[in-house]
Design goal:
Lipocalin; 9-stranded antiparallel β-sheet; two-stranded antiparallel ribbon; 11 strands; 55% strand
């Protein structure tokens, strides 16, 4: 896989179980509509264990989380809530426990595959590499 496996720019390609998941985590309906099938572009800069992870939303807003694998960091959820989390690396997969869900990210077949799990519902988002 190599050390810089995550670095790149990825555009939303498809997802599964979006509505079930965002309802489970209590996302407000305006945020649910904003996120549905939106062409989110995820930009990842990886430098060893240090990551800068930015999601660019249509309309110009973006969210950035900066973290180091194995160290506690201040993060922001997709609903805009701030929290502390320690991101772990397990077999090339990034794992983070958000306040009410677990999030994993991996590069598979050149695509960014993210899975968020809450109360037994797994939301899967696939993004294709564009840069």
């Amino acid at each position: 896989q190599g050390n810089m496996a995550f670095t790149g720019k990825y555009e939303f390609e498809g997802d599964e179980n979006y509505d079930d998941f965002v309802t489970k985590i209590g996302l407000p309906s305006d945020k649910i509509e904003m996120g549905r099938n939106s062409k989110i572009v995820t930009e990842v800069v990886q430098n060893g264990n240090d990551f800068t992870w930015t999601q660019h939303f249509p309309g110009g807003s973006s969210t950035t989380n900066t973290f180091t694998v194995g160290k506690e960091a201040d993060m922001v959820t997709m609903g805009g809530k701030k929290f502390k989390a320690t991101v772990k690396m397990e077999d090339g997969i990034l794992v983070a426990d958000f306040p009410n869900y677990r999030h994993t990210s991996e590069i598979s077949g050149g695509k960014l595959v993210e899975i968020s799990t809450a109360s037994g519902v797994a939301y899967k988002r696939i993004s294709k590499k564009i840069a």
